[in-house]
Design a protein that fits this description.
The complex is a heterodimer. Chain A is an all-alpha fold. Chain A is built from 14 helices and two strands, in the order αααααββααααααααα. The termini of chain B are far apart. The chains are: A mainly alpha, B alpha/beta.
Chain lengths: ~350, ~375
């Protein structure tokens, strides 16, 4: 394999970024409201120079499509990065926030905050993070056998945690009455349509992306150490890697990323599992390359899935979670079969 | 490398948390300013496709039944309905010329099916709504999601959401809708006519004992209604009381409880036409437990039209029809006094295009492991 130079990382990421850009342009272009490319560019330009008006073009492009794309990029990148992190942390290729029950934990946390403190802005995000962190801790300890992490036990622990948490969520849903219930059910399917909770849309997205960049950046700084840890924890320790610290950083960062994604979009499955695997197949297992490519790849997948979701059954929309599960489940099975052989 | 690197990582994480706390403070301040900003926001000016109309239009500030504030043009020409009962109300007011679009579920009257659709009530395409250049969008808490109204208001499209829990609430929502659409007189006439029919019902039934009924939203699993639903109120107007006492709006009920309470009548709702009632009673007679219920043995199974689950003017038709079925003796003499159009409506021949309340509900139960869910076309 060719040596991994910073130049090669940049080249591959640049290529993926171009694909993401193309997907974003397609997503901006298609939809129930017909707009020409020229009008899209004019609207975007006017919006960018602060000259935005309240025409229908800017309502659709700046008010509806762009925020949804921005959210899709964030959620896809966060889920895939945390999936890559969990796969390294648990040394299990089937690990992902959804399969391990972490998304359910985050959803339960978010739901509790909706019931206890429905009007506190930001409470959902923090509660989702706590739920994610607590779940992965529980799964981690349940998944050990004789002091060692065991692949099968870990997956079982994740599945059990996911169904246990889902049961609690269903129980809570029976207590909630009225229209809130409907929103929550939608939210459990994974959905990008919810508007930002504040009038300051730019500030809101700035906050979300800031959290993402800090958490993903923290994970990226461990990527060389992660490569060593993946060859064996003892060996990495002998080479001077502080295994406990690295694992703690990855653990916290991956939980933050999962909590971030779930708190704005609900539980979207399979992206965190699939995207890192596809990136491994394409570009190798080096985490210095895997983390950034997973982030961009996840963004591509979610924006594409959401674009399909809002066009194939137009004028009705499919929640993005349904789209990713539809495509993700068969690929998951394929990967499992390959692994068994 | 490890010590200095990891310290940086911890600083980074600490920064994240600090940022989160800071941002939540900022956003709290934002949230406080939301209402004043929203009410100050000018309504959507004319769309590019209708540039001929005046550039600025007079608006009025309105607070809807969910407490959202918005500016609505005084002269509403194009309205989009997000729920079947709202579409039906618009037609009942004779304002269908102003109806620019409705949902795929809107099937009463049949002409509503030919309007441009913006998707299903729970997951409409917001773009499709904007593409219809509406002056006003109508929504209701009974079926629409709060997120839909929030998202549309955020981009400057006024969305008036009604929230009826009783017949009185339905009537006042109808009057308000008429006002917003510039048809106060039609609204007053319609509401007065409906009120008159309800009063006539009340007069005819006031000496009758309430029939104790099991209102079946869905049979398997058995879902009934709670007391705070508008259906419970509609039942009272029809001279019936639900036997189920539950705070939840759509409680899942055990058959044991039904056997214990022994309802006088079983009221089924579905899109089945009246002709099938007989068949339905026979079906229940074939089912274990059900066939042992006294009401089923006696053939006391009433079929309410599916309008019973829609808070719209047609609900009064459904109430009258049910009242006649439950209390036939009360109408033997005064039947002529009632309006002539109170008989069963024909709900379009052939297959219905959209999934119905009950089908959808049952499917969701199945998909979600029989989680008690809200039926889609029922109010809270």
């Amino acid at each position: 394999m060719r040596p991994l130079t910073p130049r090669r990382i940049l080249a591959i990421c640049g290529m993926l970024a171009v694909i993401l850009f193309v997907v974003v342009v397609i997503s901006l272009r298609v939809g129930a409201y017909p707009i020409s490319m020229r009008d899209i560019v004019i609207t975007l330009y006017n919006g960018a120079v602060g000259n935005g008006d309240s025409s229908e073009f800017s309502q659709v492009i700046l008010g509806l499509r762009l925020p949804r794309i921005a959210l899709g990029i964030l959620v896809g990148a966060a889920l895939s990065t945390s999936g890559a992190g969990f796969q390294a942390l648990l040394r299990n290729p089937l690990a992902d926030p959804y399969v391990l029950g972490v998304s359910s934990g985050a959803a339960l946390g978010a739901m509790l905050s909706l019931i206890i403190a429905p009007h506190v802005v930001g409470a959902i995000q923090i509660a989702a993070f706590i739920g994610a962190a607590a779940t992965i801790a529980a799964v981690y300890f349940l998944g050990r056998r004789g002091g060692q992490l065991d692949s099968a036990t870990l997956l079982l622990a994740g599945i059990i945690a996911a169904s246990f948490l889902s049961a609690i969520i269903i129980f809570l849903l029976t207590l909630v009455n009225g229209p809130g219930l409907r929103s929550m059910t939608f939210w459990l399917m994974g959905d990008l349509t919810a508007p930002p909770p504040t009038q300051n849309v730019l500030g809101w997205f700035g906050f979300l992306y800031f959290v993402f960049i800090v958490a993903a950046g923290a994970m990226y700084t461990t990527s060389s150490d992660l490569n060593l840890i993946l060859t064996g924890e003892q060996e990495a320790g002998h080479l001077g890697v502080n295994v406990t610290r690295v694992k703690l950083v990855v653990y916290v960062a991956a939980s933050v990323l999962t909590g971030l994604a779930v708190s704005v979009s609900g539980t979207i499955g399979y992206v965190g599992l699939l995207v890192p695997h596809v990136m491994r197949m394409l570009f190798g297992t080096d985490y210095r390359l895997l983390i950034p490519t997973s982030a961009i790849g996840g963004a591509i997948v979610i924006v594409l899935a959401d674009t399909l979701g809002r066009t194939i059954v137009a004028p009705t929309e499919l929640p993005v979670g349904a789209m990713t599960a539809l495509a993700g489940a068969p690929v998951f099975i394929y990967l499992m079969r390959r692994r068994i052989r | 490398m490890a010590p200095s690197n990891t310290r940086k990582q911890f600083i980074a994480i600490a920064l994240t948390l600090a940022g989160a706390i800071f941002a939540s403070g900022v956003r709290n301040a934002d949230a406080a300013g939301v209402h004043s900003q929203q009410s100050a926001t000018a309504p959507a000016p004319p769309d590019p496709a209708a540039q001929t109309s005046a550039n600025k239009r007079a608006t009025k500030l309105v607070t809807d039944e969910t407490g959202r504030h918005m500016a609505i043009p005084l002269n509403v020409e194009r309205v989009v309905s997000l729920a079947p009962n709202l579409t039906e109300t618009i037609y009942a007011l004779g304002l269908d010329a102003k109806l620019a679009g409705d949902t795929t579920y809107c099937d009463i009257p049949p002409a509503a099916k030919n309007k441009p659709h913006i998707g299903a009530p729970q997951d409409p395409s917001l773009e499709a709504i904007v593409a219809l250049h509406p002056d006003l969008v109508l929504a209701t808490t009974s079926i629409n999601r709060a997120e839909t109204a929030d998202a549309l208001l955020k981009i400057g499209v006024p969305v008036y959401t009604s929230d009826p829990h009783t017949m009185a609430g339905m009537l006042s929502a109808t009057a308000t809708m008429a006002d917003l659409l510039g048809a106060s007189e039609q609204g007053a006439t319609l509401v007065a006519a409906l009120q008159k029919r309800l009063d006539a019902l009340h007069a005819a039934l006031q000496d009758r004992p309430m029939a104790h009924v099991l209102f079946v939203v869905w049979e398997d699993p058995l879902i009934s209604i709670g007391q705070n639903t508008f259906i419970a109120d509609a039942l009272r107007w029809a001279g019936a009381e639900s036997i189920i006492v539950a705070n939840q709006n759509w409680p899942q009920v055990s058959m044991e409880e039904v056997v214990r309470l022994q309802p006088d009548y079983i009221v089924l709702t579905s899109d089945h036409l009246a002709a099938e009632t007989h068949e339905h009673v026979n079906n229940l007679r074939d089912r274990p437990t059900w066939r042992e219920l006294r009401a089923v043995e006696l053939g006391h199974v009433a079929m309410a039209s599916d309008e019973f689950t829609r808070p719209s003017p047609g609900l009064v038709d459904a109430i009258e029809a049910l009242a006649r079925e439950l209390h036939p003796e009360a109408f033997s003499t005064s039947a002529a006094a009632l309006a002539p159009n109170d008989t069963q409506r024909t709900v379009g021949a052939g297959l219905r295009p959209a999934p119905t309340t009950a089908n959808e509900l049952a499917f969701l139960h199945f998909a979600l492991g029989r989680m008690p869910m809200e039926p889609s076309t029922c109010a809270r």
